[in-house]
Amino acid sequence: MTAALLSGKPLAKLLHLQATAQAKALAEGGLRPALAVVVATEDGSTHWYVRSIERAAENAGISCRIVDLGHDASEQVLIDVLKDLSREPSVNGIILQTPLPSGVRADELVRHITPEKDIDGANPLSLGLLAVGQRAFAPATARAVIEMLEHFEIPTAGRNVVVVGRSTVVGKPLSLLLLQKDATTTVCHSRSGPLERYTKSADIVIVAAGRRGLLTGTDVSPQSVVIDVGTNVLPDGSLTGDVDEVSVGSVAAALTPVPGGVGSVTTSLLLLHTTDAAREQSHMLVSLPAK
Predict the structure, then answer these.
(1) Is the CB of residue 194 less than 8 Å from the CB of residue 216?
(2) Phi then psi for 96, rounded to 5 degrees?
(3) Cross-strand bridge partners of residue 233
(4) What's the whole-model pTM score?
């Protein structure tokens, strides 16, 4: 392999330290930031991930409440809980964890997370604000890609960037963030045709399609920086990305690993978003007129 491996772990540690410092400053002012994670599944890997968020939050001085509604929770129950958490002053950030029970519409649920507490950018209002360049929390994974590029001093202004995948979790918000960074951005999807047509000439290729081995060495060039956002579970329980690491690594200039790349930064950003939300909400409360 010739590509430089861009590990996300050092950046994740730096962001965690930032969140810890912000949480400490808020606590000294009488406010302990609080995060609520809503879960409605029996999926073991999901519960493992949620517990890892809880441990990281507590380690940073952030209160973390796991609201486990069970795998058979109805859509209305989930809506009611999200509405209650959005109104609750002691909660600063809300995450709705997937997967959800059969028949429950995620796009309906996320509308009930108030944008001020929508720390993972799930509400369509958050995406709309992001699109017009106004203050909103971007999905943590999308922002993690930007943070990785900045951390490794990889320029985006005027660069040809290809995003593979158009989900509202990564592809679409990431394309908006890249445009804000003055990148010339192309979004590819299942109807785009051969990827090589777009990715071969790209300076930066970001793959977030959820398909193992989608990008291979024939799709990239020696100057390419490849960011792998995919997480695919193998039969033995290990993770792999959307990029064929061996073939791409033998051609590209740099590549993020899976695991240990973008995913390791995401949790730290969720914590940082929580402390940011807590600070902004405390300012809003101070500015309200006394009754």
Answers:
(1) no
(2) -100, 110
(3) 239
(4) 0.93
Nearest CA to 108 out of 131, 84, 86, 82 is that of 82
DSSP code, position 215: B
Pairwise CA distance, residues 269 & 275, whole Å: 10
Closest by CA to 41, choosing from 79, 74, 69, 65, is 69
- Which phi and psi angles does 226 have, rounded to 5°? -115, 125
Distance CA 182, CA 184 (A): 7
Tokens standing for residue 137:
């929390």
Q: Which residue segments constitute the domains of the chain, with CATH numbers given?
A: 29-114 (3.40.50.10860), 140-263 (3.40.50.720)
Please name the residue that has the structure tokens 């804000």.
180
What is 252-270 written as a DSSP string? SSEE--SSSSHHHHHHHHH
Virtual CA dihedral for 254, 120, 37, 276, nearest 10 degrees? 100
The SS3 call for residue 20 is helix
pLDDT digit string, tens, across residues 162-200 = 999 999 999 999 999 999 999 999 999 999 999 999 999
Rounded distance, CA 226 to CA 74, Å? Answer: 40
pLDDT tens digit sequence for 81-95: 999 999 999 999 999
State the burial class of residue 133 (Cβ atoms within 10 Å of its Cβ: 0-12, 13-18, 19+).
exposed
